[in-house]
Structures are given as C-alpha cells and as structure tokens.
Write a structure and sequence with these properties.
It is built from ten helices and four strands. It is mainly alpha-helical. Helix 4 packs across helix 9 and helix 6 crosses helix 7.
Length: 184
C-alpha cells in the first residue's frame, strides 16, 4: 500500500465532515457536541471518522435525531478502544524519554495543571526520573514534528496533545510509575 501523510483538517472541513454526511438522515449535532468533537480529535480525519461512526451508531440504537456533548462524552471510551492500534503505534515509535514526557504531560493536563517543560521536569523528578530540561525540550520538539504535541494557545511555554484522545488513552492504559520502574 502507498503511504500518504494526511494532515489535520481545518475547522471548516472538519465541521463539514461531521455534519454534512448525516443531514439527509435528519441527524443534528448540538454546537457544543461539534466543538467537543473537534477538541478531542484535533481535526485528525481518522479519529474524527471513528467518533462520527460511534455517534451514528448511538443515534441508530437510541433512535434519536439530536446528539449532544453528553453523547460525545459517552462514546469517548469506545473511540479510545477503536483507535488503540494507531495510538499504540505512536507510543511504540516514541523513545523512553518521549514516553516519559507524554505520560507526565497527560497527568498534568488531566489534573488541570499547565503543561510546561518545568512542570514536566518536576513531575518526572517526583517519580525518580532525571531527565534534563534539554532532554525534555528535545523530546517535545520531536513530538511536535511528529504531530503528537503542539504548543497551547494559552501561552508560549505550554504544550498540549494535538489529538486529546492520546491523553485519554494514556490515562487509561499507561502509568508513569510503571514506566519509571522500566527506565531504572
């Protein structure tokens, strides 16, 4: 098979992908639901398609014409499971240092803390992992180039996952403590 790099959809294209295919079926998404879908997928076509698939199945099972943000939240666990092969691949392609940074960032963001390099360094140190600031910066730069992370809009020194489903998957399937044991 040919390999083709597929980038993220822009906001307009992603909204069209969500809304237009189901208009003829009478299915309508609440604006908050669409916003949530865009946030958790980052406009990634594969994950967006998986989420739409799960939501259309929910619509068909429950015979409802209107889907809300609560419906999106209910389907996220299913999406994480459906997308696990891709997420596992991204994880496996990451170095141990990158994996440590990913897990620290996921933990920070999940608790509402800012995803800064300094906060990541402090959290890694709490787990006994000595990763230099230069090592963290290098790992983050590499993951930005790979499309896993991006700079957050809240500030120049904050980072977030390009596809928030990766953060959710890490929370469910990986542990910073176990990785620390593996790295020692």
């Amino acid at each position: 098979a040919l390999y083709r790099q597929v980038g993220m959809l822009d906001d307009r294209s992603a909204r069209q992908l969500i809304v237009e295919p189901v208009q003829g079926c009478g299915l309508v998404y609440d604006d908050l639901a669409v916003d949530k879908m865009l946030r958790v997928t980052g406009g990634h076509p594969y994950f967006l398609q998986l989420l739409c698939y799960a939501l259309v199945n929910l619509h068909n099972r429950e015979r409802r014409n209107y889907l809300t943000i609560e419906d999106v939240n209910r389907t996220l666990a299913e999406i994480v499971g459906l997308g696990e092969a891709h997420l596992t691949f991204l994880w496996g392609e990451s170095s141990l240092q990158e994996q440590a940074v990913l897990l620290a960032l996921a933990q920070l963001l999940s608790t509402g803390e800012p995803g800064t390099q300094g906060a990541i360094a402090r959290l890694l140190e709490e787990f006994g992992l000595q990763v230099s600031r230069a090592g963290i910066a290098e790992a983050m730069g590499q993951m930005i180039r790979r499309g896993i992370l991006q700079r957050a809009e809240q500030g120049p020194n904050r980072y977030e996952f390009t596809v928030d489903l990766m953060r959710l998957w890490l929370e469910e399937s990986r542990s910073l403590g176990l990785l620390a044991d593996e790295m020692m």
